[in-house]
Amino acid sequence: MRDLIVTQNITVDGVIEAGDWFGPADGGPEVLEALREQMAGADAFLTGRVTFEQMRGFWPAQTDDPTGVSAYLNQVQKYVVSSTLQDPGWEPTTILRGLDEVRQLKQTAGEDIVCTGSIDLTHQLIEADLVDEYRLFIYPSVVATGQRLFPDGSAQRLTLTGSTSFPSGVALLTYRRRAHDATS
Q1: pLDDT in tens, 22-39
Q2: Alpha-carbon 151 to chain mean position
Q3: pTM value?
Q4: Among 38, 39, 88, 182, who pairs with 93 as Cys (CB 3.0-4.6 Å)?
Q5: Which residues share a beta bridge with 78?
Q6: Number of neighbouring beta carbons within 10 Å of residue 113
Q7: Structural domains of the chain in order of their starting residue, each with its CATH number
Q8: Which of 158, 161, 157 is nearest to 173 (CA)?
């Protein structure tokens, strides 16, 4: 069984919506290296339709991207959870029509499945108890408004399995969900 890993850039107060507090290179070269290590361990990228369409409109055109994100996204198997998307227009991409297909994907052979961004999908994955691990790049910002990683009513008991602090002030915290213990 494959792990479904939610990787998010997040503020100290838990906001994950993009805004002025975040830029892809803001964490410095050490954060980029941590991202590259994570990309090397994942052969599937899971996203919702809106985030997919935003990324599809940006990343394929980044031919001089020194971060490696563009090269990774252009070659990795992408899975888009959508009831409306018909033609992804960015290969290799598979459209999943719901969370049951995400459950089936987790049962296939392969490496990690990573979900980044896609707040609505992330909330659905949390509520459906499909997330195995959270990798949170915590940026030293407080924005005091915006959508948070965990929706109200989604109590989680997590185990810290890794922590790294970077010279930029960003911290990477890795948590595993405790099996069958999401609300106790």
Answers
A1: 665 678 889 989 989 999
A2: 16
A3: 0.91
A4: 88
A5: 45, 93
A6: 23
A7: 4-177 (3.40.430.10)
A8: 161
